[in-house]
Design brief:
Strand order of the largest sheet: 1-4
Strand content: 5-15%
Order of helices and strands: HEEEEEEHHHHHHHHHHHH
Number of helices: 13
Shape: globular
Largest sheet: 2 strands, parallel
Distance between the termini: 66 Å
Structural class: mainly alpha
Length: 252
Amino acid sequence: RKTQQSFRKISTEDRWGMSFHPEKCSIVRVTRARNPITADYTLKGHKLDVEDSTRYLGVELQSNMSWNRHVSKTTSKANSTLGFLRRNLRVSNENTKTAAYNAMVRPILEYCATVWSQHTKTNINKVEVVQRRAARYVTNRYRNTSSVTNMLEHLEWESLATRRTKMKLTMLFRIIHGLVAIPAEDYLTPATSTSTRSSHNQKLFQTPVSTELYKNSFFPSTVRTWNSLPSSAAEAPDLVSFKRELSTLNLC
């Protein structure tokens, strides 16, 4: 006979072995509707405040689905770290300074980049400016007449936008091949046919989109790029081979 205890609903707090503080919790309504349906929510008798953004696992989520605030906070933190390097790592060796930039600054700019990778010119440029400042620091060339483009070519640094594109493609490869806990069948559909001789056999169906935000979100934007890959990359047998093929491509 089942006891009454077996019917007791297990709360989220019990499931995760933690207690939520109602005054530290809030609501973010993610919508772009002009007149969204709203409701009040309470936790332990406390009415939760409504905010227009929140930080989740290090990523700033806005209610209007914009990444402006996240990009601003990320670039501000990266610039601060770069300033720390300039003040404390005063060496002339480019390799040493490059290693410091790669270890301390660039990871800030690329944390969860597959999620927030930008399509607006303003935010793309805001992120690239940090790397351009880093190039001046590494090469120790601060004159206005010095070409930062030449510095980046000398250092052989890809643009951060290109690196984000390759990160997204790598994540998609992982999803397709079951290397991460994201069920491919829930988000991806194999294309039914190929139209050109150069097409690869791993093409995916391009979901129709009606908004600019959805068009530039992870799956629609990455599938577009994935479908244009050469067969040597898309049909790579493993992740190491895929990354090697990807490193040879110019995805600007």
